[in-house]
Structures are given as C-alpha cells and as structure tokens.
C-alpha cells in the first residue's frame, strides 16, 4: 500500500481525473472531498459489508410456502389499523 | 425448482440476468421474479438454486415515497439511461417468529430493467436510507394509500 502524508487542503490525484482533498481534520475524524468523473462510483467501505450482511440475514429465515401469505395478511391489517 | 412453490414452469423471457450478482452471492447471475397474488410481496428466486430465494417489496408500497439515488455505474449495469425505465425493489428480512419486526433494505435496492431483462443490487447514495427500515413503522409513519 502506498502511504502519503497530507495536510489540510492538500490533495492527491489518482490517475488524471480523480482528486481527493483533505477538507477538515477534527480529532480522529478526517473529512475528504472527492472529485471524480460521474461514472466513478464512490462509497464508504462499510456500506458494501452492511448490504452483504443484510442479504445473508434475509435468506436465513426458514420459509414455509404460506409464509408470504401470512405476511401479506399481516401487512394489510397494519395498513388498515393505520387508518 | 423454487423455494416457495416447488416446481414452477418459467419462460426464458422471465429470467432476469444479474451480471454483477448481488453482494455476498455474486456467483448467482440469474433470478426469476415471482409475484404473489393479492400481496405486496414477491419472490426473487435464483434460477439455478432452488434453496436461494429472497422476499422483495416495492418501497412505494409501504413508504410515502422513495428517492432512488444511485450511481452511473449502477445505471450502466442494467443498461438504463433514466430511472423511469427501472422497477425498484427492496429485499425484506423477516426475523424468525416475529414478522412484525420485518425490515426492508433500502440502502441496497434491487433495480430491474425489464425491457433489457437486466438487474442489479444498487447502492443508494442517499444518506437517509439504511439496510434495516422497519416496514410496519414506515406504514404508520406514512399515509400509504391502499391499492
């Protein structure tokens, strides 16, 4: 891994058109600004992990064929109670 | 073979390709969407794996509105130029024995371009959505119209 030291308002370039700027440093938190072309996707790393964990949780429930029917009834009741 | 209904006959046209798979299951590239009659829920069944199926719901069926904010990469993955071309779903997690606590994953919505038969799990760029939105709570928070 390449390690670079940067100060406030300094930046690094990744390739020709991705720039990462240090916008703010407060205690243990660093605020970064990212300038990149629209087609480049930027997300916090935890988000990938959270979605993956949720996908796994979603299929862990053992299903009976009529589970969904019960849920639909339950869903409708909740909506009606709401009125 | 499906998890919920046993053997189901599926036309080739009903198969949706997920070139990127979905997070944690990226080896699964084909899903079939099975609607439940009279129900807001549907199944996203893995085409080649009978045991692998997700329960989905359309976010607009339990929330007042859902703002789909996703990256160009996600749009490209389903060859869509406009969000109006997309069907949007959320994966539902149902805790065993306590369906009241079911949650919808609005952070990682499933988007499908029916015309191209392409789907992907997008990542919401809006900070307000998480992987666990209580469906029942959202219903009581929002004045959701019936039908």
Mean pLDDT across residues of chain A = 87
> Biggest interface, which chains?
A-B, 32 and 49 residues
Work out the helicity level of chain B: under 10%
Give the amount of beta strand of chain A, in percent.
15-25%
CA radius of gyration of chain B: 15 Å
List low-confidence stretches of chain B: none
The run of helices and strands of chain A is EEEHH
The span between the termini of chain B is 31 Å
* Rounded radius of gyration of chain A (Å): 23 Å
Instruction: Write the H/E string of chain B, N to C.
Output: EEEEHEEEEH
Structural class of chain B: mainly beta
Count of individual beta strands of chain B: 8
Strand order within the widest beta sheet of chain A: 1-2-3
Q: What best-fitting shape of chain A do the alpha-carbon axes yield?
A: elongated
Note the total helix count of chain A: 2
Tell me the span between the first and last alpha carbons of chain A. 57 Å
User: Portion of residues in helices of chain A?
Assistant: 25-40%
Please give the largest β-sheet of chain A: 3 strands, antiparallel
Q: Please count the beta strands of chain A (DSSP E, at least 2 residues each).
A: 3
What does this structure look like?
The complex is a heterodimer of chains A (83) and B (147). Chain A is of the alpha+beta class and 83 residues long. In chain A, 36% of the residues lie in helices and 24% in strands. Chain A contains two helices and three strands. A three-stranded antiparallel beta sheet of chain A has the order 1-2-3, with no helix packed on it. Chain B has 147 residues and is mainly beta. Chain B contains two helices and eight strands; from the N terminus they run ββββαββββα. In chain B, strands 1, 2, 3, 4, 5, 6, 7 and 8 form an eight-stranded antiparallel beta sheet that branches. In chain B, strand 2 (30-35) and strand 3 form a beta hairpin. Chain B starts with 14 loop residues before the first strand and ends in a 6-residue tail after the last helix. The model of chain B has no long low-confidence stretch (mean pLDDT 89). The chains are: A alpha+beta (83), B mainly beta (147).
């Amino acid at each position: 891994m390449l390690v670079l030291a940067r100060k406030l308002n300094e930046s690094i370039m990744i390739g020709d058109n991705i720039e990462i700027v240090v916008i703010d440093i407060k205690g243990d938190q660093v605020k970064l600004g990212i300038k990149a072309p629209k087609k480049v996707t930027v997300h916090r790393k935890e988000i990938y992990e959270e979605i993956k964990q949720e996908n796994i949780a979603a299929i862990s429930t053992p299903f009976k064929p009529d589970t969904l029917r019960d849920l639909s009834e339950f869903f409708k009741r909740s909506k009606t109670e709401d009125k | 073979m499906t998890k919920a209904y046993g053997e189901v006959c599926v036309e080739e046209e009903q198969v949706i390709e997920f070139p990127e798979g979905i997070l944690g299951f990226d080896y699964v590239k084909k899903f079939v969407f099975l609607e439940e009659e009279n129900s807001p829920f549907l199944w996203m069944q893995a085409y080649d794996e009978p045991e692998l199926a997700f329960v989905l719901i359309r976010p607009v069926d339990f929330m007042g509105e859902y703002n789909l904010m996703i990256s160009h990469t996600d749009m490209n993955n389903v060859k869509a130029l406009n969000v109006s071309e997309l069907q949007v779903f959320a994966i539902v997690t149902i805790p065993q024995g306590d369906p009241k606590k079911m949650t919808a994953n609005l952070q990682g919505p499933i988007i499908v371009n029916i015309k191209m038969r392409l789907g992907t799990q997008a990542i919401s760029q809006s900070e307000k959505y998480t992987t666990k939105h209580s469906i029942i709570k959202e219903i009581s928070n929002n004045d959701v119209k019936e039908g």
